[in-house]
Write a structure and sequence with these properties.
Number of domains: 2
CATH topology of the largest domain: Alkaline Phosphatase, subunit A
Largest sheet: 10 strands, mixed
Distance between the termini: 69 Å
Number of strands: 20
Strand order of the largest sheet: 10-9-5-4-11-1-13-14-2-15
Strand content: 15-25%
């Protein structure tokens, strides 16, 4: 019996040692956060010390890109490690299209949580999904053991009547029939016609779910998702885990908690004040998650990534993409270059500013290789770990491709071509001297323009038709 117990103890200790060698992986995804808002990226209005600490303790990427200028398509690439145009997830399902049974992440695609779960990881998605609202696309059917969040593109942060918050809503007409801004007598609700549309029906058929069951969540969702993440980290500290913490902040609707609104009382513009409140709330949430990792003594074996899913929609949120031109929805730098940072204490040197081009596509192989998982053969990204802290002039990523219907872009080195929606011609920019894409060099550098066009066309030839038409609905296929 003593010999048997010794053997069992040896086996168990070996299992624990193996588990301890596998790093936890935490992806923290912000929604619609512009490139220029965080203090570490030049922002000055809103203190963001907690998010910035990830860059201070690791790597800040200054040329970090996503694969699409809006939420769902960008997230499809993040979770598969592949250009979403390879499998037709080209557009952004909104409204009722979220529940269309034909719209979602194709079932043939392998996801990062599936790969990590096969390597012995516990996996969780907390927050926004936006990769299909039908049952077959449920996060728990795509590799996540645990899900707490919502399925569609957005959600009100608190349920009606939005107590203890100031809410800003888009409208087409004010109560007096005019245009501009209107505020309720108590100042709790503000209407604005500046975008000439209505606030989307985010909550229609879109409950907050715990796994598959609706819950009556009373907390602001930023706080609720933080609470769930903290709890998950503590409950799974004895095993390797993958946590995708997918906040819906700072996505609309703009809803500022009273406590944060008081903190930013010096900001006169109410729209900007609400946005600042939401970003500060997000930063505090990230701080609580990082503190829980430290409290559980997990820092040395936890790879943490923070990024935004696309550029900020400036007119909608006031979110700054400075010094970039463009915003969410287009393929100028302001729509696709995002704040991105990574820390792994003891494995990645602190305080690195990485200026080489990288993509969210890199995060799948980086996490999977760190976990000792088997990589799918068809990824479009590379493992970042061999490159970080080694500024040897060797590119991490040679080129990057984008397509959204008629919009297109391609970057190789410091050169980028861009074709706007409805345009027949391409612009050419040198981003090393013109980060704001203000000087079109297509007329003076025709050879470079032609070279990048050929490269874009070669990659575009590998892509497929969109699975549905722009705007969603009906599962209609949309041609290139």
């Amino acid at each position: 019996m003593k010999k048997l117990l010794t053997v069992i103890a040896a086996i168990l200790s070996g299992s624990f040692a193996c588990a301890a060698d596998k790093p936890n992986v935490i992806f923290i995804v912000a929604d619609d956060l512009g490139y220029g808002e965080l203090n570490s990226y030049g922002g000055k209005d809103v203190p963001t010390p907690n998010i910035d600490s990830i860059a201070r303790n690791g790597v800040r990427f200054t040329n970090g890109y996503v694969t699409a200028p809006f939420c769902a398509a960008s997230r499809a690439a993040l979770i598969t490690g592949r250009y979403q145009t390879r499998f037709g997830f080209e557009y952004n399902p909104i409204g009722a299209a979220n529940a269309d049974p034909a719209i979602g992440l194709p079932l043939e695609e392998t996801t990062l949580p599936e790969v990590l779960r096969n390597a012995g990881y516990a996996t969780a998605l907390i927050g926004k999904w936006h990769l299909g609202g039908a049952a077959k696309f449920n996060p728990q059917r795509r590799g996540f053991d645990t899900f707490f969040g919502f399925l569609h593109e957005g959600h009100y942060f608190v349920p009606p009547p939005w107590n203890n918050h100031v809410t800003w809503l888009r409208r087409r007409t004010l109560p007096d029939g005019g245009m501009g801004r209107w505020a309720s007598p108590d100042g709790r609700v503000v209407w604005s016609t500046h975008l000439n549309n209505f606030e989307p029906d985010y909550d229609a058929d879109n409950p907050v779910l715990r796994n598959s069951q609706p819950v009556d969540e009373k907390l602001n969702l930023t706080d609720a998702f933080t609470r769930e993440a903290e709890d998950y980290i503590t409950r799974h500290k004895a095993q390797p885990f993958f946590l995708c913490l997918s906040y819906n902040a700072v996505h609309s609707p703009l809803q500022g908690p009273d406590a944060y609104m008081k903190r930013f009382a010096q900001i006169e513009d109410i729209q900007r004040r609400i946005f600042a409140s939401m970003l500060a709330n997000l930063d505090d949430g990230v701080g609580r998650v990082l503190a829980r990792v430290r409290r559980e003594n997990l820092e040395a074996r936890t790879l943490i990534v923070f990024l935004s899913d696309n550029g900020g929609p400036t007119r909608e949120l006031t979110s700054s993409n400075h010094p970039l031109r463009g915003e969410k929805g287009n393929l100028l730098e302001g729509g696709i270059r995002v704040p991105m940072m990574l820390q792994w204490k003891g494995r990645v040197p602190a305080g690195i500013e990485e200026n080489r081009m990288v993509s969210a596509l890199e995060l799948f192989p980086t996490a999977a290789v760190a976990a000792g998982a088997q990589l799918p053969p068809n990824l479009d990204g590379v493992d970042l770990m061999p490159h970080l802290g080694k500024p040897n002039g060797v590119p991490i990523r040679e080129q990057h491709y984008w397509r959204v219907g008629q919009q297109a872009a391609f970057r190789a080195g410091e050169w980028k071509i861009h074709r706007a929606r409805g345009a027949r011609t391409w612009q050419l920019y040198n981003l090393s001297t013109d980060i704001g894409e203000e000087r079109d060099l297509s007329a003076t550098e025709p050879a470079k323009l032609a070279e990048l066009q050929r490269a874009w066309q070669a990659l575009d030839g590998e892509m497929v038709e969109a699975l549905w038409a722009q705007g969603g609905g009906g599962g209609r296929r949309a041609k290139k």
